TrEMBL record:
Functional pathway: Pyrimidine metabolism; UMP biosynthesis via de novo pathway; (S)-dihydroorotate from bicarbonate: step 3/3
Keyword annotations from UniProtKB, A to Z: Hydrolase, Metal-binding, Pyrimidine biosynthesis, Zinc
Organism: Pseudozyma antarctica
One GO cellular component, as annotated: cytoplasm
GO terms assigned for molecular function: dihydroorotase activity; metal ion binding
GO terms for biological process, alphabetical: 'de novo' pyrimidine nucleobase biosynthetic process; 'de novo' UMP biosynthetic process
Enzyme class: hydrolase
Pfam families: Amidohydro_2
Protein name per UniProt: dihydroorotase
Length: 392
């Protein structure tokens, strides 16, 4: 007889985007709704979070929106950052620094162009036991043969080099998508960990090509890569853990030309002279990001059960990441344990059916065609999850 209930000790999401303004109001409470007690929050805001003070203010704003969640902050690696600021940030409880190579994803225009420039920062981080979070892709460069499908593999030399130079620095390779990345992390020492998103446990190239809601960075890769991600979860390898990379974007930015400007090539909203580029179309095309916060732990349970790893759920969504980051003591874990139960089959519209869309309450009455409307379509919208959270 298959298991019907599972207790999961205080799930933690070690990579989540909670944004600012109305979007933050909409998505921050979803962290707890998805079963997560601790959220490690990314700094790619506009402007990015580059100081201890900014990080503290941001975390306070998130806590005001979702008091039941423990939020942990990060800084954005950029030339603005100094070793002194690292010391202040460590003192203020900021746990890590996120590195984005310039131009590879959302709000990465201020990202970095080489790593050696930042060695004094890494030195200070090592001293203060801060974690370096690496977006592990190099920018596309057709002349050099680099595109989104091999950008992660080409990055791995940087991982090895930084690890060699700073063996005591805790490093997390974020949202790994390839067999090569899994092997690289395994080859490194105990100071190197790796987040794996639930959507990368599910998607392959065919699932995002032409399907903006599944498009994220790094893009999902080949079936064999997905198998490597699944295998390392099945194995329960202690340095691989949940970082959802849940990244909400307004629907209008996922389908920019269709939603905000009518069919491409029409003059409907164009004030420029290029008929093929109506004004305001996001120049990079569809925004990168998959949204999973609101359904996170039930989604993970459903996916892990699908490839025979349900017994690894607690390791994946809680214990491994907490141990790596040092949030595994009894005090950190005393609140936030959850129970999941198998969702009953049958009528649609149960708690286990993923909502079609989330809309900020102030925008419910606004026409769907209004691009400013804060509405987010979650991963697996309208599909049924195999597990649901027991709410008391
Ligand atoms: O798909 C992504 N979305 N990947 C990232 O690295 C950033 C994120 C976002 O902030 O939207
Ligand atoms: Zn991210």
């Amino acid at each position: 007889m298959s298991v019907q209930e599972i207790n999961v000790p205080a799930p933690a999401d070690f990579h989540v985007h909670l944004r600012q303004g109305k979007m933050s109001e909409l998505v921050s409470p979803h962290v707890a709704e998805g079963g997560v007690a601790l959220a490690y929050v990314m700094p790619n805001l506009v402007p990015p979070i580059t100081s201890a003070q900014q990080a503290s203010d941001y975390l306070a704003s998130l806590s005001a929106l979702a008091p039941q969640t423990k939020f942990v902050g990060t800084l954005y690696l950029s030339p603005a950052l100094t070793p002194d600021e690292i010391a202040r940030a460590a003192e203020a409880g900021v746990r890590g620094v996120k590195s984005y190579p310039r131009g590879v994803t959302t709000n990465s225009e201020g990202g970095i162009e080489d790593y050696e420039t930042y060695y004094p920062i890494f030195e200070a981080m090592q001293k203060h036991n801060m974690v370096l979070n690496l977006h592990g892709e190099v920018p596309s460069n057709a002349d050099a043969g680099i595109c989104v499908l091999n950008a992660e593999e080409k990055f791995l030399t940087h991982l090895f080099k930084i690890h060699r130079q700073f063996p005591d620095l805790k490093i997390v390779l974020e949202h790994a998508t390839t067999r090569k990345a899994v092997e690289a992390v395994k080859q490194c020492g105990d100071t190197v960990g790796c987040t794996i998103t639930p959507h990368h446990l599910e998607l392959i190239v065919d699932d995002w090509a032409g399907k903006p809601l599944n498009f994220c960075k790094p893009v999902a890769k080949y079936p064999d890569d997905r198998q490597a991600l699944r295998d390392v979860i099945c194995e329960g390898h202690p340095r691989f853990f949940l970082g959802s990379d849940s990244a909400p974007h307004p629907l209008a930015n996922k389908y920019p030309s269709a939603v905000t400007h009518g069919a491409p090539g029409t003059k409907a909203s164009s004030s420029g002279d290029d008929d093929l580029e109506p004004t305001g179309v996001v120049s990079c095309g569809c925004a990168a990001g998959v949204y999973t916060s609101s359904i996170l732990v039930p989604l993970c349970a459903t996916l892990l059960e699908g490839f025979g790893a349900l017994d690894q759920l607690a390791n994946y969504v809680s214990l491994n990441g907490r141990k790596f980051y040092g949030y595994d003591n009894a005090d950190d874990m005393k609140n936030g344990s959850i129970t999941l139960r198998r969702a009953s089959k049958g009528a649609t519209g149960s708690a286990a059916t993923v909502p079609a869309v989330y809309v900020h309450p102030e925008y419910v009455e606004v026409a769907d065609s209004d691009a400013s409307k804060v509405q987010v379509v979650p991963f697996w919208a309208g599909k049924r999850l195999g597990w649901e959270i027991v709410r008391s």
